[in-house]
Amino acid sequence: MKVKMMIVAVLALASAGAWAAPDEAMGKAGCMACHAKDKKILGPAFKDIAARYKGQDVTARLMEKVRKGGSGSFGPVPMSPIGADKISDGDLKEAVEWILKS
């Protein structure tokens, strides 16, 4: 499992340069280890998240989901909680809003 996670992380880091997120905070928080803009890695692609929540006011809800982690929304793979020590509330809000516009 560790090898698989390392491969995923390397691939995510390699693809991260292909598009610019609103801030480097997403990379520092570890988001890019499991997500990419337009393809599923371990977690859903940002474009798939945006499509699921299109037209809904879910920024606060998704911020809470990032903070608490969980599973079931996009499959059985759980998302680890991401604390304020990894990404500030302001940067997280900006990231979620950017994802929803993807």
TrEMBL record:
<dbReference type="GO" id="GO:0005506">
    <property type="term" value="F:iron ion binding"/>
</dbReference>
<feature type="binding site" description="covalent">
    <location>
        <position position="31"/>
    </location>
    <ligand>
        <name>heme c</name>
    </ligand>
</feature>
<feature type="signal peptide">
    <location>
        <begin position="1"/>
        <end position="20"/>
    </location>
</feature>
<keyword id="KW-0249">Electron transport</keyword>
<keyword id="KW-0813">Transport</keyword>
<dbReference type="InterPro" id="IPR036909">
    <property type="entry name" value="Cyt_c-like_dom_sf"/>
</dbReference>
<protein>
    <submittedName>
        <fullName>Cytochrome c</fullName>
    </submittedName>
</protein>
<keyword id="KW-0349">Heme</keyword>
<dbReference type="GO" id="GO:0009055">
    <property type="term" value="F:electron transfer activity"/>
</dbReference>
<keyword id="KW-0732">Signal</keyword>
<dbReference type="InterPro" id="IPR002324">
    <property type="entry name" value="Cyt_c_ID"/>
</dbReference>
<feature type="domain" description="Cytochrome c">
    <location>
        <begin position="12"/>
        <end position="102"/>
    </location>
</feature>
<dbReference type="GO" id="GO:0020037">
    <property type="term" value="F:heme binding"/>
</dbReference>
<keyword id="KW-0479">Metal-binding</keyword>
<dbReference type="Pfam" id="PF00034">
    <property type="entry name" value="Cytochrom_C"/>
</dbReference>
<keyword id="KW-0408">Iron</keyword>
<dbReference type="InterPro" id="IPR009056">
    <property type="entry name" value="Cyt_c-like_dom"/>
</dbReference>
<feature type="binding site" description="covalent">
    <location>
        <position position="35"/>
    </location>
    <ligand>
        <name>heme c</name>
    </ligand>
</feature>
<feature type="binding site" description="covalent">
    <location>
        <position position="79"/>
    </location>
    <ligand>
        <name>heme c</name>
    </ligand>
</feature>
